[in-house]
Amino acid sequence: MSALPSPAHIPPDPPGPRLSEPRPSEAPGPAPHLRPRRHWGSHLFLAVAAVLWITPVLWAFFLSLRPLAETNKYGYLSRPRSLTLDNFRDAWTQADLPHYFLNSIIITVPAVLVTLFAAACVAFGLARLGRRLNLFLLILFTAGNLLPQQVIITPLYRIYLSVHLPTWLSDSGLLYDSTLGLVVINVSFQLGFCVFVLSNYMRTIPVEITEAALIDGASLWTRFWRLTLPLCRPALAALATLLTIWIYNDFFWAIALMSTGSKRPITSALANLQGQFFVNDNLLAAGALLTAIPTLVVFVLLQKQFISGLALGATKG
């Protein structure tokens, strides 16, 4: 039996890098098709769009800080001589903004809650209950958003005048000139979009989860309320943010379907800041900025859920 060679008889490795080890200059790099591309055109477009979007807001803020006498004397593009918060104080008191803020809350909160709940119920039926007419119903709900509001204002006005309500729901006894009328019309016009979004989002949830709950004996309401709806929280938060902004900023329905000025929401209250022959643009800019504060608060509070809802909707499916 031959003896193993001693370490002294083992030949040393040749100088230089080993063949099995890549040289530093030959280190593999990312494939050409995997290297990140620099989309300079997209970045430039987004930067220009951001500037165009924020310029009117900054201009309104700059205008609201200047006295009317100064802008009348030196012009709107002149260098400011003095800055003051008097326009915000006058807009708050002259337009009675606290009263109209309350009117907007009374209209917006029920409309958002009813829209989300009704849309979730319809979307669950379209996404989880197999029926042949599901696609047709989804198209029908979505088509309602394609109808311009101005087209149906005349027949809708006549319908509102013919629907009677008890006095505890409407001072006029009609659906016209009532807070309930604005809630109903906002729910009707926002329901189709919410059904479209939620039904597509619910289809991304694995069917095995619902089937497992069904095997365990869960009822239809349990599968909807305790299983599917919590999984749709990001989409509901995103829709709640959008609905709050849209319904809060509505101006058309408040003017067309409500005649009593004290019942109207905050958007129509800005008309109280302008006269018949004279408009104080500085005061109007301050009132518009005060009006936008609640929507900014809602977006800040739901920002995380809103962005996560958009991200999940973009990656699932």
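The above is record 1. Record 2 follows with the same two-line structure.
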Amino acid sequence: MIGPPGELRSGELPVTMLPGQSDERRMSPSATNLRAVGEPRDGADHRSQPARPAIRISNLQKTFGKLVAVDRVSVDIEPGEFFMIVGPSGCGKTTLLRILAGLETATAGMIEIDTPANSAQPENSMVFQGESIFPWMTVWNNAAYGLRMRNAAPAIIKERVGHYLDATGLTRFADYYPHQLSGGMKQRVSIARAFANDPEILLMDEPFSALDAQNKLLLQEELLRIWDEQKKTVVFITHSVDEAVYLGDRIMVMTAQPGRVKSFVRVPLPRPRNIIELQKAPEFGELVHRIWSGLRDEVQRAREQENKEAAHENKEQSS
């Protein structure tokens, strides 16, 4: 969470204010080389500037030794946008999301996140691919965890947790422990916790990938319904092209390693969306086909890379 204006935590870089503004809003120091969103770049026209994106990623790169995981990724994500990232295994999707969450640092490039100064809201909440709720806490206490860590008033905790447990169909399971829940119900707890914490940005790393088709469909519909209440900015990673089209406003398609931007695809389908009805629409099928046609070669290339790496490892082990 950001400290008072002008106060920097250890290891943070200075934050540049928007031209002509006080520190009414400031940028989150999530990565190196920060600049305020909306501040003119060198050589840009200063007379007319577009509205500030919620997230600006500029020439982001992440390396692990000689391995380039993310390579020169640039994108602006608008406030309230449901932004999807799809790509083959190993293309750096999760690494990119972890950098946004502050769990990894970028090797080069810049991330700018537009957040209010002195806001009581956390910058982001993350819903992970695997189970991430605390096994020793009840459903209620898991959902309330973020709010309690921020010392929210008991009345606020009661209202928000109650609201999102109700929205996810978990009210009658409030006193249950995770070992008493199904996989789908555990992910509902994670979603309730993320929304109850009222973050500026919601980060989701394949949260439904381990679920069966029925639970996946139900949770996709619940997520859209809950998101529609407040229109949080969402960055959602998936391997599923269908899921990307169901949920997203815009989709970033990534290449095989090293992960680069292959294309951006706008999803013009109207909201609110009924996923079952959407499957019947010709526009849905055309979008899925268009995205998969561009993604197929990258998936094949990723498989070839995996096979080469496996063959190299086997050769080293046998020598």
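The longest strand covers residues 67-77.
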